[in-house]
Amino acid sequence: MSRLVCVSNRITLPRRAVVPGGLAVGVLAAMQNTGGLWFGWSGELEAHPAATPESLTRGAITYATMSLTQTEYDRYYRGFCNTTLWPLFHYLTDRFRYDHEWHVGYRAVNRRFAEQLAPLLRPDDRIWVHDYHLIPLARELRALGVTQPIGFFLHIPFPHLEVLRLLPPYAELVRDLTQFDLVGFQTAADEQSFHACLAGVFPEGPPRTRTGAFPIGIDVDTIIGEAAAAMGTEPVKRMITGLIGRRLMIGVDRLDYSKGLVERFSAYQRFLERHSRHRGRLIYLQIAPLSRDDIQAYATIREALEQATGRTNGRFADTDWTPLRYLNRNFPHPTLMGFMRAAQVGLVTPLRDGMNLVAKEFVAAQDPEDPGALVLSSLAGAACELEGAVIVNPYDLRGVSQAIEAALTMPLAERQARHAAMLAALRNHDLRAWHTGFLAALG
Ligand code: ADQ
Fold this sequence. Notes:
alpha/beta, Rossmann fold, 16 helices, 45% helix, binds adenosine-5'-diphosphate-glucose
């Protein structure tokens, strides 16, 4: 059988703390299934990166890593990836910035990825490239004579042509994507956007590029097991004791402006204003570990959230009740699943999201006999599948506030029916279906 080679910007080395994020979970699952080589940036910055990658083998997986220089990190990672592509692809055009030097850096790092990876490749490898950091990689590998099949999966949304056109080198990016043998998206809508862009960039008729929608999922039974087992553990028991009988609403997100936390906090404040009977009876726990905190936009949003927390608690708290508990800490995954199981409401309201695995995890973590209700943004890819959620527009503070009320008062039979429908959807497109489906299509 051919060897699987996964390439992503960051990789999760064995026995290092897992970087919270959906991509790492997905790639690791694919690698654990087949074994193979996982290539990417080590997370280290060095003045003089080594000419060949460092490699480490554990079981069936070989991890090969390279480091970046500070300039590469600034232009490629902080600049083009996270200040240009990330906001643009999430339709957050007011946060979008462009600098020609960042684009040059992005191309240069992709070239260096290709140069370091190419010598490690075997003739029968299949290469699977992940996410927006590495769009030019197929072109760079082909330039070095690599002929093996190369697939690409985009974990974030793919924007419509009229949004993509804000990016000066947008046509080049679209042409780069056609260098892959297969381009995969989270949803059919993302795939359609890409085809519209192809038509725009190649008016004379685009090259044949195979595409597909491969919605990423979760390992349903693992999450069910994790959540149930976590209920007996110290951290979950302590959290529940701390509720002193009050109901729990939970949010778990990387601290990122695309997750809609500022809007969510405002909606909660509105909820407390308008639905006074829930005051003193509900605790909203928001867990949001810092991410990309050396980028200005992330520091700004962090400040806004701290202020909003202070405002809400200052205005509504009582001597024995804090309405909003906002934590920047990270928790082990099973503990998070236990927190979710203990919650009556899950609040997942991104302004835009490729998929959103937290929404799926929240559903799987529930007790089917007495499940909590999910409030979910219509602008997350997950909304296509989780029709049993209370669907909201995250910008509509009134709508989100009403959805919280509806979730808190939903009768048991309705919660059970919605949960069962959502669980069936999760099983339909689980994590295994995602990687086996993509790899089967790559051939
Ligand atoms: P993310 O934007 O990182 O992923 P998401 O899909 O929700 O978002 O995945 C987050 C993962 O990290 C979940 O498994 C969650 O449990 C975990 N996590 C979150 N907070 C954590 C914490 N405090 N401690 C520990 N673990 C935590 C990107 C795209 C998404 C897409 C995924 C996968 O932005 O749209 O769904 O990739 O393709």
